[in-house]
Specification:
Layout: H1 3-17, E1 24-27, E2 30-33, E3 36-40, E4 43-48, E5 51-56, E6 59-64, E7 68-69, E8 74-83, E9 98-107, E10 110-117, E11 120-129
Antiparallel strand pairs: 1-2, 2-7, 3-4, 3-11, 4-5, 5-6, 6-8, 8-9, 9-10, 10-11
Length: 139
């Protein structure tokens, strides 16, 4: 078997067993969610090297730190969730951010996300890498 054929076989096997890595990046033995924007109806997630900014129709949130993916592309990370409201925002109004968990799975260029904030379950949302989000912000 030639070097080129062996290399192609290794790449194929890697993609076969780790298909979720299309929207991820492997560093050493850990797979992390790749930087970029993921969008869909009601949700936008912008991933960077410092975490992720999350926008909902009437809320926003933040995930601090790298998002590590399990062998099946699953993740369960801590973050914040801040509900928003329609109407005017007062000058001294501070949007309260509450602790939340962001759970989901990445498969190729598709991510499924559910937010758990206390006993409240928000989602699941199905978003795509590079897709434009459809958000209807509170006004």
């Amino acid at each position: 078997m030639s070097y080129r054929t062996a290399s192609a076989a290794i790449v194929f096997l890697h993609l076969l067993f780790h298909g979720q890595t299309i929207g991820a990046q492997t560093i050493g033995v850990k797979t992390i969610l790749a930087n970029g924007t993921w969008g869909g109806t009601g949700l936008s997630v912008t991933v960077s090297s410092t975490g992720a900014d999350v926008e909902f129709d009437c809320a926003h949130g933040r995930i601090e730190g790298t998002i590590h993916l399990g062998k099946t592309g699953s993740f369960d990370v801590k973050g914040t969730f801040a509900p928003e409201h329609g109407g005017p925002i007062l000058r001294d109004e501070d949007a309260a951010a509450y602790g939340a968990r962001y759970k989901g799975r990445v498969a190729g260029d598709t991510m499924t996300v559910t937010v758990l904030q206390g006993t409240t379950k928000i989602g699941p949302f199905r978003i795509k890498r590079g897709a434009r989000p459809i958000l209807r912000k509170c006004r």
